[in-house]
Amino acid sequence: MTASLPPVSARLSLDTLAGLSATPGLALPRLDPASVSIGIVHFGIGAFHRAHQAVFTEDAMALSGESGWGILGVTGRTEAVAQQLQPQDCLYGVLEKGVDDTQLRIVSAVRDVAWPGRDSEKIIDIVARPSTHIATLTITEKGYLRGPDGDLDLALPVVQQDLGLLERELGGETGLPASTSPLGLLVRGLARRFRQGGKPFTVLPCDNLVDNGTITHRLVTSLVAAVGDDHSRERDELLAWLAASVTFPSTMVDRIAPATTEADRQLEGNLLGLRDEALVVAEPFKQWVIEDRFAGPRPRWEAAGAILTADVAPYERAKLRILNATHSMLAYLGALCGHATIAQAMTDPVLIDLARRIIDEDILPTLATPDGMDLSIYRDSVLERFGNPNLPHTTRQVAMDGSLKLPNRILGTVQDRLQQGQTPAGLALTVAAWITYIASTIGEGGAVLDDPLADLLQAAVGHASTVHTDPNGVVDRVLALGQIFPPAVQASAEFRQAVVDELATVQTIVRASFAHV
Ligand code: CS2
Q1: Of 1.10.357.20, 3.40.50.1260, 1.10.1040.10, 3.40.1280.10, which CATH number belongs to 313-515?
Q2: Which DSSP string do the residues of 94-146 spell out, in sequence order?
Q3: Taxonomically, which superkingdom (predicted)?
């Protein structure tokens, strides 16, 4: 049907935007981009930020009439996103794919984009500017560079390199090379802000980590505290300013935003008549809960539907433990059963039943009910969202970085259940599915294991067949990884045995699923 349409070649931009009009299914920017100035620096401008915080920020500006909250988006290691956004004057579409309906909106809250490899001075300067008030972060679990004790891993070469650059920044040098990590760059920005007057500032992490604000505070402080005694005065003054004038609220973020495909770009091209290389795809649902602890001004995000609260923890625990935990389970077991997407996994009654049971039996007993939320309704809505057939979120995408995701989504719950005197069988099964998934990536023909600890994990599992031949040995070696499993989980003979037993359950489920085909 769409094949007969001519290919779209003109790019979305401020010029081409002027020729567009809103139609049913297409919403134009809610702001005049020319009137918006930068008030936020965002580190990690991937699909999730563009589909989530940028949309809340655009709505907040539109509804409050404030125009000072435009975003400078800082890319990750590569320039790719800058190359997508720059020619488009940073405009992009969000294709919201519901079960029955697809809507496209063009977002204009991102007003500039910078690539650290070229623009690090500019980024640092903009963090330091008095008119900038907030840095938001979506740098993924691995961007936080935490060591086995959860604090900044000072042994990492990137951290050492960024520490050296921070010391030179504190010595007053400018025009230095780029910091390698987003944290390194942020801290240099904070150091310059302090030197240039020290207006209060807020750092707002938006990644799926338990207590993300507290963690980010600790990491930033640790990097500064590691500065050598040659700069002891600057170091100590900066530490004092951080303690007095910079806050790190915790947040819970939620919106499923799978990787954009060329088919999505073509669908958008047909709706818009323009080519948009920066398109992002998302479900209609979005939620943002923010600890209301800002050092300075902030956008009126509540006008856009965000919840500002004194305590994010109950929302964040519920989301990580219900949504992200079962997402990971469905990714590992789903992939093993041959499902390419989460939505396909959610057509399998065995997997649906399992997800439900894990939530009811292992997870809900560990949760406090957040204000205004009914957790069983939340559970049902999460499972319904996973089943959205128009959202091809691949099991492979959700499966990546398991060594960093499982501690945040699963192992805290395991620990709580063990403390309650219960062995969480469904979560043991999730760990067993993860181990089996790792095994499936070993040897010829195996998929790539996308995880910073891939070598360690594959070595712990050994050989693809050891899961069958030596389940006890495999479980012992995996549970021994202290950078993943907390001591209380490692010490539980019951949990260890449950993982061994559930390796067999995983085999049974996988075999039965292929027997059906
Ligand atoms: C997913 C999350 O990729 C993953 O690990 O579980 O990105 C998930 O889609 C979001 O947290 C939903 O808010």
Answers
A1: 1.10.1040.10
A2: EEEE-SS-EEEEEE--EEEEE-HHHHHHHHHHHHHSTT--EEEE--TGGGG-B
A3: Bacteria
